Amino acid sequence: MTDKYIIQGQRQLHGNVVISGAKNSVLKLMSATLLTEAACKLHNVPNLTDVSVMGNVLQALGRTVSFGDGTLEVQAGTISTCEAPYQLVSKMRASFNVLGSLLGRYGEARVPLPGGCTIGKRGIDQHIKGLELLGAEIKISHGTVTAKGSKLKGANIALDMPSMGATENIILAAVLAEGTTVLSNAAQEPEIQDLIAFLNTMGANIEGGGTSQVVIHGVKKADLHGAEFTVMPDRIEAATFMSAVTGTGGRIIIEKMQANHLVTVMGKLEQIGTQFERLDATTYSVGRLPKNRLKASSYLTTYYPGFPTDLQAPLMPLLAVAEGVSMVTENIYENRFKHVGELNRMGANIQVQNEIAVVTGVAQLSGAEVKAHDLRAGAAMVIASLMAEGHSSVYNLSHLDRGYDAFHLKLQQLGANINRLPLTSIEHQELQEVL
User: Fold this and answer.
1) Where are the domains of the chain?
2) By the 8 A CB rule, do 137 and 165 touch?
């Protein structure tokens, strides 16, 4: 909470932006390195606080981690403990995935219940269900999950819902289980496909990535080895820049993105008023004619390949100034409308009724002092500030640092008037009192 963004709005964006590696992939790949005692190397790794936290988790477990110039290396070696530290796991939900890796490789794990953004209930019942069907004994006591299972065996597992985290944890635990595991109603996100590709590069035998049924043929510990792998581009970051240029006007070139991961989102943006031109397989020109008012549209968040909950907030500033009335339905997390109050402070007209936000478009937003209540809400506030008339201050940048690599620097390169400045002592004290 030591910094803030100062943003002068209503400047069009122009230029090129290169998309970083996917946060929601690399964290799980780092967990997967625990399945082997050989060295692993990951490329295209973004410089995020979440990556740093996960690196600290691996080091606390006994591995040696180094990171620089987009490459992260986990050195060869055994772990020294199967207990992940609370002070680290409580900061980030993705670190909970060390549970599956530790259980699968070493037959035991003690992992505190996960933390991260406070966007609603994110239960672990599907994780537990899958691991127990593999033969693990699970106990939850005093905020810690203890798992034991020295001889995991393949099983038929059908998730009640396509939970991304549960899918990943079950896959990680099943890699070294005896026999074959068939995981039905599995999550289909591209990041899971990335995890499966990495595991197969390590020597695993997994089929069905990107479908609702993943088949994991168990291998022996000796079959797993070190691997070198390049992390996929971050689809959420790409869509965040699409939203920013749509809101401000102008045209930018987005490089190193995979449009096939964003079909639903790009279709929705086109309805709102975004223009896309494909330049090559991973490069798109994205923009909007400045005199064209955006059009109202509605979307509901759901599991991939539907509209992602992580983009519910970053697109809402567009609806706030669109012609007509839009409805946004949040089906994944019940507490993910914290940005609505901040947008209304900027002049938006948004009413929340249970899981639905009704957005009545206004002519324009006005600059204000606003807070990032979570990672994606923070992105929404930056986009709204870029669109608004006058100056805005965005606080709580620690949330944004978790998921966007050099966010304000990339925006500066596109012509945005955004600067990162330290808080004054009075501002810091006031924020501490509010939070």
Assistant:
1) 3-20+233-434, 23-230
2) no
Joined tokens for residue 90: 């409580």
Q: Write the CB contacts of 87 (distance below 8 Å, at least 6 apart in sequence).
A: none
The count of residues in the chain is 435
Sign of the CA dihedral with 197 first, then 199, 203, and 204 last? negative
**Which class is 3-20+233-434 in CATH?**
alpha beta
Backbone angles phi, psi at 35, to 5 degrees: -75, -15
Among this protein's residues, is 82 annotated catalytic? Answer: no
CATH topology of domain 23-230: UDP-n-acetylglucosamine1-carboxyvinyl-transferase; Chain (3.65.10)
User: Would you give the distance in Å from CA 268 to the centre of its chain?
Assistant: 20
Q: What is the pLDDT of residues 32-66, one digit of tens each?
A: 999 999 999 999 999 999 999 999 999 999 999 99
Whether 3-20+233-434 shares its CATH topology with 23-230 is answered yes
Q: What is the pLDDT at residue 195?
A: 98
Distance of alpha carbon 351 from alpha carbon 347, whole angstroms: 12
What is the per-residue pLDDT across 395-427, written as a single tens digit (0 to 9) for each?
A: 999 999 999 999 999 999 999 999 999 987 666
Handedness of CA 65, 222, 172, 131 (dihedral sign): negative
Identify whether the C-beta of residue 242 lies closer than 8 Å to the C-beta of residue 219. no
| Lookup result for tokens 């596109």 | 414
Q: Which of 19, 103, 117, 238 is catalytic?
A: 117
Among 120, 131, 212, 132, CA closest to 164:
212
DSSP state of 226: -
- Please choose, from the candidates 43, 2, 41, 4, the residue with its C-alpha nearest in 3D space to the C-alpha of residue 20: 43
Single-letter amino acid, residue 161: M
